[in-house]
Design goal:
Helices cover about 50% and strands about 15% of the residues. It is α/β, with parallel strands linked by helices. The chain has 2 domains: about 190 residues, Glucose-6-phosphate isomerase like protein, domain 1 (Rossmann fold, 3-Layer(aba) Sandwich), CATH 3.40.50.10490; about 140 residues, Glucose-6-phosphate isomerase like protein, domain 1 (Rossmann fold, 3-Layer(aba) Sandwich). Strand 4, helix 5 and strand 5 form a beta-alpha-beta unit.
């Protein structure tokens, strides 16, 4: 089955109408954490699934990434591709397939929806509308209906976190998510983000974090891509110590390129002690080679979820300020919109 013309053309038009500046979207996002989810056909008394396979692209799977880092409960598997990942018999009988697309028009999510229906597995949907919502209602599936606002999907973390808690029927988790808005410090994040933006100016961010904080590195990598319109990359410690680190052992002729990299280390006192040692040593070795490094601290004085959100706010503010410096739009993603328009006209 193909997933082209009408679906993506509608999605492209919808994205072109987004206009709210990212600074306003940051403020609005903090209010999302107290949103009461709109649930359709969700049995909140049902036992939670042992595993949730989240099928979504771009900003539509970031909340699941963050929740998997911060909360005990069902195991999460993030699938950002067409169709479904290989499913074991256990998955088919005990996992929930969650199709997540803020627009409801994402080609890959619609492909996953069709594949899940064909496989006869347990399904739910999280979206603000579009074809996905129509098909979910037609199939009478449990659905989280997100507010349809002029915001970027990457700025719907609060809505999607609350939606996940509602889908799971977890009142305790919902309360912890609601507490995030009071626990984070937006003004402090902006100040720290400004210092980070100054350190990154003219360079390419490379995010490094422990495996536990990999979702934060991934989210911030995507934030620099979409908001500041610059390449950015990420990796995890200790794995990068066995391969990527050697890339900084550059010769003199490559130094002008390598020194434009700006490694950002996400530090966390909850990390394995040897991971903390590795991060400190990596920073020392890179600085000795003329590569400037920065860090974002995951505060031990806050809950895991709020601490992660504070780190995301810092990186988001840095990206917003870089966008202003580079004179690019900080909300819209024109190249992605152009790509989607051309994809519509390119059949398989």
């Amino acid at each position: 089955m193909h997933y082209f013309p009408i679906r993506l053309r509608c999605a492209t038009v919808w994205y072109h109408h987004l206009h709210m500046d990212m600074q306003e979207q940051i403020t609005r996002m903090l209010g999302q954490f107290s949103w009461e989810p709109m649930l359709e056909r969700v049995d909140v008394r049902a036992a939670p699934p042992r595993k949730i396979i989240v099928c979504g692209m771009g900003g539509s799977h970031l909340a699941a990434e963050l929740l998997a880092r911060a909360a005990p409960g069902p195991a999460f598997l993030i699938h950002h591709d067409y169709g479904l990942p290989p499913l074991s018999n256990t998955d088919k009988n005990g996992a929930l397939i969650l199709i997540s697309s803020y627009s409801g028009e994402t080609e890959e999510a619609l492909s996953a929806f069709d594949a899940a229906q064909s496989a006869g597995v347990s399904m739910a949907v999280m979206t603000s509308g579009g074809r996905l919502l129509e098909e979910a209602r037609t199939a009478a599936l449990p659905t989280v209906v997100l507010p349809r606002e002029d915001i970027e999907p990457r700025m719907t973390l609060g809505y999607m976190l609350r939606g996940l808690a509602g889908l799971l029927g977890d009142a305790s988790l919902a309360a912890r998510i609601a507490a995030v808005a009071q626990a984070v410090h937006n003004d402090r994040a902006r100040t720290t983000g400004e210092a980070l933006a100054n350190a990154l100016a003219g360079g390419v961010p490379v995010l490094y974090a422990s495996s536990h904080n990999a979702s934060l590195a991934y989210i911030l990598k995507a934030t620099f891509n979409e908001t500041a319109k610059i390449p950015a990359f990420w990796g995890t410690v200790p794995e990068v110590c066995h391969n990527e680190l050697s890339g900084y052992d550059f010769g003199a002729s490559f130094a002008p390129v390598a020194t434009q990299l700006r490694p950002i280390f996400i530090t966390d006192t909850a990390d394995h002690p040897r991971v903390q040692v590795r991060i400190a040593l990596m920073r020392t070795l890179l600085e000795e080679r003329g590569v400037a490094t920065s860090s974002i601290e995951v505060s031990a004085d806050n809950t895991s979820l709020a601490a992660g959100m504070q780190a995301i706010l810092i990186g988001t503010w840095a990206a917003v300020l870089l966008a202003a410096q580079y004179e690019v739009p900080n909300a819209k993603t024109p190249l992605i919109a152009t790509f989607k328009e051309q994809l519509v006209r390119t059949p398989t």
